Batch of 4 targets.
Target 1
Amino acid sequence: MHNSRLWKMADETVDLFVKTVRLPTTLLEKVSDALENARKRQARSASYQEEPSRPARMKPPETSQT
């Protein structure tokens, strides 16, 4: 009976350890995903900002010619 109690405590300790290790892993995954999404968003916004600026650069020569 004493041994089974020790085994149960050992199993609970292992379960707690696994949960403790898994938590930072999932947090790191979430942070990594958030950073990746932020990079994608920044790249998208940069490409959107470049597209309108190109026609804007082309418009002044057209207006100066007319």
Target 2
Amino acid sequence: MGRAQGIREDSGRLDAVNAVDDIRRLYRAFDTTVLQQFEPNTQFTLLNDLMPLSRSVRIEQSRYDYARTGGRGWAHTSMSGQIGAALDARTYTFDGTMVPIHDSGFKFTWRDPIFNSPSALQSQADAQRGSVEDVQRKYVDYMWDGFRDAAGNYVQFDGLTWKGFRADERVAQVTLNVNMATSTDRKAMRAEAIRLRDVLKLGNYQYGQQTWYASSEIVSNWEQYYSDNFQSRTVLQELLTLTGIAAIKEDAKLQGNEILIVPLQAGVVAPIVGQAIGTVADPRPFYNSDYIWRTWGAMGLMVKTDINGHYSVVHATGEATS
């Protein structure tokens, strides 16, 4: 490498011999906004609501069980109190859920020029962020569509399966009689919302405050005014006045005429976490080993029913056109 005459040997200089394939890569600044710019900001709505409710298990525990009981027992009334105690042996059944591993990863080749760039740390951070979101999306898919093998069949582990909110036997599957995504009949939509609320409240004796998750099409349609006579509140605001409906939120996993109802604070739905999502680096046994990171988590989902088959979660969909 040639040096210009007249420059002191102890002055600062850059010896950049064979450092990168193209010296211009050292001076580039990359805009990373586009990585997130066109992704829905509601893709983790339900996940973000459920994670504070998560329950921890040890990583070696691949299933989580809970007991179900029912019946009110009995009692009697007397003046003497000497006619014997009212004894009733409760009946219990058990259910549970599996705790599978969800993983992804990213890598850089050992001679990747990006490591000679001032933005190398940013590039790794971007890759790690994307890897975490990939695992989060995989877990969201697991929540909604269940655990399937490569052939598309539901995986059975130790007698347990999870078919997702859209198909599992632990979730009440309801057909909507009104297309909430396109209807302009406000009163019909309100009446249908009352019917849907009562599936849990009256039909399944689940009195917890309900959080509704709806598709973007439904949320958009519910922004129309409830009354044509005067511009008052919207259909969405009208539905929030119904007893028992605490919130209505948009979730990108829901499509078209599709709604999920969850009583978040009732203790009947919770992620079961053996390992929170995190990223670890693979060992590099040789000087020319690639830089590899793996992002993983161990997470299942518990959805409870009672001993009599009453539901706590409702998934509603339909193709009605009214």
Target 3
Amino acid sequence: MRLQRTLLAGAAAIALTSHANASELRGTYAAIEGGAGWVGSERFSQITATGGVIGASATYDADFDTGWAIFGSLGYAFGNNMRAELELGYRQNEIESLREIFPVPGALAPDGDLSEFTVMANLLYDIPLGRHLTLTVGAGVGADQANLDAGVLGFDDGEWVFAYQGIAGLSYAIGDQTQIFVNYRYLHADAPEYTTGIAANTVQHTAFLGDLGKHTATLGLRFAFEGVRTRPEMAPPAPPPAPPPPPPAAAPPQFIVFFGLDSAELVPEAQRVVNDAAGAAKEFGAAAIHVVAHTDSSGSTAYNQRLSERRAGAIRAALATNGIPANAITTEGRGEGDLMVRTGDGIKEPQNRRATIDMK
């Protein structure tokens, strides 16, 4: 249990020290790791045969202590998060209890162990979790030399069998070429069978009655000969450009009202222009309206000045009738001083008999 707590603490320390982006192995690497191993209860049988004639037989159950395991591997990282490696491993678990099930049930002295030497080819995939932290998942196939030493039964033999395993782990880059990591493995091996000569013309056949399953948890160190590449932190994406400012509001138009000769009366056409000007002032929210009235050059200067002022006043009154506040309207009469069409004195020119309505 103490070893289990140590391994779990190592995994937690690796997880808590991660940063923003990922690191990855490159090229050839080597690793070594060690830790604890667990194996469940196993049942095996023994049959003795002399001269080909089957004799005594017995069946046993064995329970095992938490054991230890050590692994070494040599691999290659392809640069696309995939790795392939050759792994050598050794596991050993002491027999904790041994019981005869048949023919005479009873407990026996717990003497001996189950040891396994493995040769595995693994394929692994690294999943970046942080600037230095990587999650690994993978699987392997190979061979397991399972050796059972049951000293109280006078038996010690081993056999190579087919095996496969699943792997999960966490790695943390602690330098340009080095990673510290924790791994979990589940190994499944075919049930081994042993045939041992115990006397002249007599053999003993021992067989596990089920496949072997073993769990290991390890802490290790990995060295990359070409280095561990730490990916730079990616800058956050640039914010989207601000939308263009809305186009400036269109300036309210200028309205021009024309008058008859020697008149300040608003004829129907002139009244429609004033009505349009009042509507535009409301639509644009104009705060002020300025009316400038003019005359042609016929008549005296003094008379024309008075006439232009009457024309401006007539437009102001019409705007007020259309709902424009009188205090928002200013007027100005310019007489014949600002002709639209340049003429000599005393000339009757219709386009000069006008008034302009501007708003702001």
Target 4
Amino acid sequence: MQNGLTFATVMTGLPTGIQPMDLTSDRRQFQRINFDRQAHLTLADQSLVCEIIDLSLHGALVNLSDSKMAESSLINQTGQLTFHLGDKDHSINMTVTVSHHEQQNVGLECTDIDLDSISHLRRMIELNTGDSQLLKREFAALLNP
């Protein structure tokens, strides 16, 4: 060990005790990007303020930390997720279904999205991943499930 580095750290880039994610066990088909943004989620005739944790072409993970809805079962409920991109002129609106709910985190599957919103979302993901070919494959998979 030199300069506080162990063999495991050098080989994996991770500190001892931290295991790299097994990509073969990750079932996600779409690349996710971290996206810390406030959004509005409408579920069961209630408009909730939430924080987006991450986004993909296929959905989002949000945190409902200030909501009593975080305590109830939300699985399979349909709603609307809306958030702005930096300015008030550009927003993303998607119809979502709650796919999983664990404590205050809620996984949302995008079931419908308008053309402007998907265009903005696609460009944002492309800029954040830096891999336009991967995004093209994901977009094709989204269009042809």
